[in-house]
Amino acid sequence: MDGAKAKVKWAEKRIKELDSAIDSFLNPVGRLKPYSIGIKRDSQTGEIIYHLASREIVPNDIVLLAGDVLQNLRSALDYAVCSLTVANGKSVSSQTGFPIFDHAPASPDDQSLLTRKIGGAGKEAIDYILQTKPFIQPRMPVTNLNSDSTETT
User: Fold this and answer.
1) What is the mean pLDDT for each group of 10 consecutive residues in the chain (153 residues)?
2) What pTM was computed for the model?
3) CA distances from 119 to 2, 77, 99, 107 (A)
């Protein structure tokens, strides 16, 4: 588990840097905030509507740090599954890793993928992993964590 722990520690360092960068961006000294909040009243319902408008693009440092944090935490999950597989006396393959689905795994193909990814980790580890519900739940835009894609959802 040393690799997984190292990835988490690295991510924790980056989270502190990210927090600082976000704070500096959202609470600038000597200039306007990078966003404005507007208030409108719906002419038909009379309901008050709040809207947020961006004045500035989020700096690359924030975007890159956030990506680094997510990638390291995602990698830590894969490292943990690999460690559990080795501890269970099985061999790690290029398919071994923490499963993340974009839906609740139910089909035979899903089960086959689960077996390839976590089958060597042992029953107790598999049961625990499945209890985490490693699939995208409604309104949770993280499907691209499963790929090397630079696209965002």
Assistant:
1) 94 96 92 88 92 89 96 95 95 92 86 90 90 73 49 41
2) 0.73
3) 21, 15, 11, 16
